[in-house]
Amino acid sequence: VQLVESGGGSVQAGGSLRLSCAASRYTVSKNCAAWFRQVSGKTGKEREWIAFIDTDGSTSYADSVKGRFTISIDNAKNTLYLQMNSLKPEDTAVYYCAARFYVCSRYWSGYNYRGQGTQVTVSS
Prior knowledge:
This protein is mainly β. Helices cover 0% and strands 49% of the residues. 34% of the residues are buried.
């Protein structure tokens, strides 16, 4: 299983970005797929959970992004997306996608497959 993120960059507060996570040897629509982030300078193995699409297609979001971020899947492209609107400086972080073959978890350590991350920087 390989997950490759793209779409990160720099944006001003209030702006939008869309992150992509292309999956290979893994069917995103039939399994759990999630987004996490880690703020620069924070150490430790855990990342902050942002959102996931579960095995039944349901979605869930962290309170910090609810109403601003949307997680979705393009079945034809086997790609996971994170649409981020109304971005704030505190959203600045490295964003990771992650996947597992059973119901979703809010914990980074629970995911078998993880991307390398893409940097998002939001300036005020």
